[in-house]
UniProtKB/TrEMBL annotation, chains A, B:
Domain of life: Bacteria
Residue span, HTH lacI-type domain: 4-58
InterPro entries in alphabetical order: HTH_LacI, LacI/GalR-like_sensor, Lambda_DNA-bd_dom_sf, Peripla_BP_I
UniProt protein name: LacI family transcriptional regulator
Keyword Transcription regulation among UniProt keywords: yes
GO molecular function: DNA-binding transcription factor activity; transcription cis-regulatory region binding
Keywords, sorted A to Z: DNA-binding, Transcription, Transcription regulation
Organism this protein belongs to: Mycoplana dimorpha
PROSITE patterns in the cross-refs: HTH_LACI_2 (PS50932)
Amino acid sequence: MQTATLAHVARLAAVSENTVSRVIRNKGPIAEETRRRVLAAIEQLGYLPNRAAGALASSSSLIIGVLLPSLSNIVFPEVLRGIHAGLADTLYQPMIGVTDYDLDQEQRLLASLLAWQPAAIITTGFEHTQASRRMLANARVRVAELMDIDARPIDVAVGLSHRSAGVATARHLVSRGYRRIGYVGHDWTADRRAALRYEGLCQGLQEAGLSLVAEQRFDGPSSTLAGRDTLARLVEGDASVDAVAFSNDDMAVGGFMHCLAAGIAVPGRLALFGFNGLEIGQVLPKPLATIRSNRFLIGRVAVEKLLESGERSAEPQVIDTGFEIVAGATA
Amino acid sequence: MQTATLAHVARLAAVSENTVSRVIRNKGPIAEETRRRVLAAIEQLGYLPNRAAGALASSSSLIIGVLLPSLSNIVFPEVLRGIHAGLADTLYQPMIGVTDYDLDQEQRLLASLLAWQPAAIITTGFEHTQASRRMLANARVRVAELMDIDARPIDVAVGLSHRSAGVATARHLVSRGYRRIGYVGHDWTADRRAALRYEGLCQGLQEAGLSLVAEQRFDGPSSTLAGRDTLARLVEGDASVDAVAFSNDDMAVGGFMHCLAAGIAVPGRLALFGFNGLEIGQVLPKPLATIRSNRFLIGRVAVEKLLESGERSAEPQVIDTGFEIVAGATA
DNA sequence: CTGTTAGCGCATTCAC
DNA sequence: GTGAATGCGCTAACAG
């Protein structure tokens, strides 16, 4: 079976190809009677538009290029869910690439995404190679940079201030009476946002006349396992810490597991504080004190913003999706 | 800046477009000197092939359509990671759709993926609408059906036997001395694989002259929260159960949390058994007894198999990626 | 409101 | 080894 084309539909409906095209794209005025005939023909033939042809002719496609740093961290699949939710009921399709937090990899993937003439590119963070920036500037696509809003975006940024989240963490712990605060983190040479939260944390403590009394960093990506082992190292080194801020919830949940196994009372002996507000933290015997970061919302809002208009606005836009303290019971 | 096309490259290299096209696709014989000149021109112009044009001309694209039932369940992002790993170092790009376990939604997404003339379609399970099957039959694409191997695939199936995994669970629990075995599950009207594991579990118990002494099913998708609450309901109803098989690790981890909070000794008073082998289960104070399902491998192997050849083989192929019992310490 | 005319950028025949 | 011609299926002008 030969797949139907515009020409077949046009012949069957006894109109020109152009008219069929107009009906499909809802563009230009069409007589109700004509539209009916065309739709009937489309239905009868099971016609599916060839997107490649459409993209070539219009030099723009219904593809949204999505660049994610990782799929291992549950945070990004959640952003992707939001993107999907925003794309539902549209004809756009996401084409995704995973950069492994590598800017050169991002650049390569960006090039191959742009080869499809996507309508928009969604990526994360503000760090890109010069070549990537140049490509994005030359291509006439909308660009969203997700997660972070602590810098000037290319087009639109959607996310939260990680620095502020760090400050909020410090203030919360201080207000709860903790004074000997430690930090357990992962390797954030590639994770600028974790670094920003750390900076905010230090700044917030400083405002209260305090500073970190201990810190321990795992040399690798964040995980529950890393959190467990790294907290163990921290308390081994300095038993006087009364609260620990973790680089994120995965690490904090791991820390909680260490406390369970080692018989450390939480929060009596040691308070724990995470970041992200993942489900797993809220199912612990004591719900994790953390900050909710609205990942799903970030993805959805980004898509909505991008589809609002085909053109960039004169000034870059910043959309703050905010965050909330989740008090929990571990701090 | 106008983006460069084949024609520009051809002019600069003083050859025909055709020759440039051959160099790019490594097809047909090319004089070394010519190739050099062409590559230099490509480099100089920063030429990027327009994939839409290529797809239109060759009526086949470098797109791999991926249909996933969900992104909320960490299992599927892991499959997607495997797919990405298999696609790395190729020019193929994944275009993804999320079906929410809805076959009609799968059909709609399939139609819009096929509109891009993808080289292959990757989907999950063996249940598809008649229309979906017809589209897949008519389109000349490779098709992989992932996760499950308990039925005859359209083209290739990659996964494990969930029925066997259920049987293995039963045998393991029985061999460990448990006799009063219960089941805690989620709503699997849409999750055929969980149902298959359940069937296998019952079958395995029957082989040992046993049957489930209690079961409780959460009316919704699986989650740690659901697992916690549903186990609570189960033990409330029948306190004599000595082991519980969960529909998956998420549910089991939730169950573990309930035991922690309710002071139920694991496995002394109650043994717990999951499915998937997620990291979170292995970080519990007692590592979860479970079955590892090799999600990453499933994705990667599927891609490798699909790219092996552009044509379906005469007979459908089944690739068993297997599973292993993770003994853990909760059973 | 509808039809006509031209490409979009590339791959695929064939020649030579 | 290389080039010339043709068309993939559609959209974008412009007429009328």
